[in-house]
Specification:
Two copies of one chain form a homodimer. Chain A has helices spanning about 20-35, 50-55, 60-70, 90-105, 165-180, 200-210, 225-235, 245-260, 300-315, 315-330, 340-354; strands at about 5-15, 40-45, 70-75, 110-115, 130-135, 145-150, 155-165, 185-190, 220-225, 240-245, 265-270, 280-285. Chain A is of the alpha/beta class. In chain A, the strands form two sheets. Chain A has a ten-stranded mixed beta sheet with strand order 2-1-3-12-11-4-5-10-8-9, sandwiched between helices. Strand 7 (about 155-165) of chain A pairs antiparallel with strand 7 (about 155-165) of chain B, so a sheet runs across the interface. Bound molecules: 3-isopropylmalic acid (2 copies). Chains A, B: Belongs to the isocitrate and isopropylmalate dehydrogenases family. LeuB type 2 subfamily.
């Protein structure tokens, strides 16, 4: 797919809490990193907890329709104060974040994990960690299938249904193999729980085996999700590309972020590889309302998300330049440094400008 | 409930691989630890991969009926060689382990995690870790509900259904609160994913809130399962009693075992607190066929499981004696020591006797 040239239409959802602050720095870096002749035509969308509390709206259909007309989406973070009685639990997660992922068919939720030089891991001896999780984004236990009966009575029953289709599993597995084939180690690990979740597990495992024949250079590995936790704690360097379902991917990637220096550094892309709709890039962290508006937030994860965005748009060199600038900045950070959010953005932008 | 006195009927399932070896050491310690006048009347049951490969039987109904007539079950480990073509994946897990847990209504899957003195954690600075996970054992995504359609075609769909009932959630939550109330810190953390799995999540959260009124001394905390991973990697000392569903508990407890020194030390109890059927105690580790029969396996987890067994039977002093002996043995272990399985058992048994 040729990269859009000239003008890239970018929908920007700063969101709540520290979201707008880190997004401002991400945009700063993006402007500097853009290849010659490429400009980002930004439209800001006011969505999130504040918008909901003010108007009762989460994601109006008309706004979704507008967002669809963009080349990409940059998202900061959404979420209000913990336990705000006016904010029903999960309403933004499902009504905004997950709705965007599902409506825009972001079937590849891409989450790289790497221990950058200078970054401290909580693990005493993590080794050389550099892997990427390809988390399925449109199926599994996240579909909102399931329900409840006799709610509030002693006879209540609540179900959650994990939905897995050949269509959905194949496309994400094929994407993961293609990524593995492009990496030096060329290794793909399926993480699932095939010994208990036999129907879904069997579909995932058969699909991996079938798609493997298209990628003879890629080594295939399988680990149960519980054992994967042990490896992440004791030998995370063993992973290269991990493919897994929506819920396992959620759990795995937070642990992966923790052992590689924290969710302050974890970037993600909600990608539609077929480009039938705009992909969305966001830091894995939340809106951290306790430190909002104080220029205390670390914008690194948001900035790294723009590297994924640039790469997705086909600007591989610009993507690498952003990542390199972040790597250099991290290596130079003083322990206990208290640079302001904008100072970190300025420093990284200056390195990209070079 | 008064402890059975005189003779305790113990069903022993050594299983496969290192299972029989570690079980022998657990029994050695159990004999020594038994209070005066209490004897363990053992019946060995030959179940597991070998039995299945030889006879095609996993858990005959008649054997299950016999096992039911015991006061407790001690299990080593089951599982054959990886990828044995004659062993359908998951057949022992579901047909034996999970079948026992479900048939015997082991609704409390008890998994303590503690960093014992002298034990090395993969975390650089784990802090003072001592918590217990109360994992639900008879519901959730482990029920085998769900199914598949058009298997093997491009239109395949596979579902897994997590089943959660007020009956099932309440009893395990109440058990977890009672355990929290007996511990010094008196803190209970619910781990779930209420913002996405809204039906099940709501039932769990409402149940925790309702049962909390019966335990006013216990502090209640809630963490999403993904965030719980981060805390386990960065601040595991924050946990006291964790209550969670079957699948989240599976994932959490393997990570908990990893950060507290490995599954070589992790004990577990599949407990029926109502004592309507025998509870089952087993190390969390598997059958490790690669080192079977070589006296290389560490029997510590199996031995610690007998401490849980003794405690469940009401022999609190004997349970403490076993745990203390293990703690003392661990503190004295030489780094890189290669004691044989039986030597470890002998040493711990001697300390209990001592
Ligand atoms: C906020 C929540 C719905 C979301 C998820 O579970 O996917 C988040 O945890 C993430 O990983 O992006
Ligand atoms: C073997 C498997 C079925 C089992 C589980 O998932 O419960 C194991 O992982 C455990 O944690 O005891």
């Amino acid at each position: 797919t040729p990269a859009p040239s000239g003008s890239v239409r970018l929908a920007v959802i700063g969101g709540d809490g520290i979201g707008p602050e880190v997004t401002a720095e991400a945009l700063k870096v993006l402007e500097v990193a853009a290849p010659d002749g490429v400009g980002f035509e930004q439209t800001a969308y006011d969505l999130g907890a504040e918008r909901y509390l003010a108007t009762g709206e989460v994601l109006p259909d008309s706004v979704l329709a507008e967002i669809r007309e963009h080349d990409a989406i940059l998202l900061g973070a959404v979420g209000g104060k913990p336990n705000d009685p006016n904010l029903p639990p999960g309403i933004l997660e499902r009504g905004l974040l997950l709705r965007l992922r599902f409506e825009l068919d972001h079937y590849v939720n891409l989450r790289p994990s790497r221990i950058f030089p200078g970054v401290t891991s909580p693990l005493a001896d993590p080794g050389d960690v550099d892997f990427v999780v390809v988390r399925e984004g449109t199926e599994g236990p996240y579909t909102g299938n399931g329900g409840a009966l006799r709610v509030g009575t002693p006879a209540e029953i609540a179900t959650e249904v994990s939905v897995n289709t050949a269509y959905g599993v194949q496309r994400v597995v094929r994407d993961a193999f293609a990524r593995a084939a492009r990496r030096p180690r060329k290794k793909l690990t399926l993480v699932h729980k095939t010994n208990v979740l036999v129907h879904a597990g069997s579909l995932w495992w058969r699909t991996v085996q079938a798609v493997a024949t298209e990628f003879p250079d890629v080594t295939v590995d399988y680990i149960h999700v519980d054992a994967a936790m042990i490896f992440l704690a004791t030998d995370p360097a063993r992973f290269d590309v991990v493919v897994t379902d929506n819920l396992f991917g959620d759990i795995l990637t937070d642990l992966a972020a923790a052992i590689t220096g924290g969710i302050g550094l974890a970037a993600s892309g909600n990608v539609n590889p077929d480009r039938t709709s705009p992909s969305m890039f966001e830091p894995v962290h939340g809106s951290a309302p306790d430190i909002a508006g104080q220029q205390k937030a670390d914008p690194t994860a948001a900035i790294l998300s723009t590297s994924l965005l640039l790469d997705h748009l086909g600007y591989a060199d610009a993507a690498a330049a952003v990542e390199d600038a972040v790597v250099a900045d991290l290596a130079d950070r003083e322990p206990g440094s208290t640079r302001r959010t904008s100072e970190v953005g300025d420093a990284i932008a200056a390195r990209v400008a070079g």
